[in-house]
Amino acid sequence: VITATDQLAGTLKRWTEQVLRAVAQQELGEQFLFGSVDPATASPTEMFLTPVWQQAFGDSKTPLLMLE
Amino acid sequence: MSPQAQRLTGTARIIVALAEFGYLTAHQITTLLYAPSSLAYVRKQLNALVTASVVLVLPRHSVTQPRVYTLSGKGRNAAAVLGIEPVKRFRPAEERDKADNLYFVQHTIAVTDVLIGARLLSQTVPGIVLHRMYTERELKRKIYVEYPETLAEDTRGNRTICLEPDASVHFCSKGNGITFFTLKSTARILQNAASSKKSQATRRMQEARFTENCFIPRRFRLR
Q1: Which of A57, B1, B33, B60 is the S-S candidate for A29 at Cβ 3.0 to 4.6 Å?
Q2: CB contact under 8 A, B117 and A32
């Protein structure tokens, strides 16, 4: 979820967690990521490779793409 | 060769880009294909394409809104000649209707920004290949997630709502696997929530968020 502020990202993360709990599918939380990156101005590296995304039910930040 | 066809030759890259992405602003075309200093050049090329009826400009709601360009029927034929077959039929009236929806325009610009970022990432970071990119029009009714309407706190019945992705990008990394994202605007979800029986303050908050372009990147990682 890309929003203008971290606060909004947190709210949408909470909503997603509520829905996933309601359908008893918390394990899908790792597939939903939330951040406040502006796709119009962020560089591709910032958008995809920088750990600025937070997973549902998670506290730490992660990149969209993890290079191995 | 007619003067218009000569112009087409000089702007083939723009036509191909419009065929791939569907809708683009001049700034997005510049980001995708040229150096930032080439914005004036891109605008000039787009004006030539519009004059030649190869490209359409969606009507704007205000002068501050960026112009959004899309291929006309003629432009779609030109793209096919260049090897890119644009998806979906083209109807000018439908394009005008879309332009009337400010949210559609804002949403489309934002989704396309993400897709452009994905394309540029694969061009600038060694080892990452953009295996496939799907726009919303390509995904129509192919991938969707069903959920009971009651989850949207809508009391109209027990219907099932289908959420369709707005875009999808598939990356390959060193040939070891594919990571793919489906991007979904939350606008529809928030619209449903805003129409449900909630407090006025909550509804105002949700409506405010509805005006933003938000995406749920859904990540699937295959090893």
Answers
A1: A57
A2: no
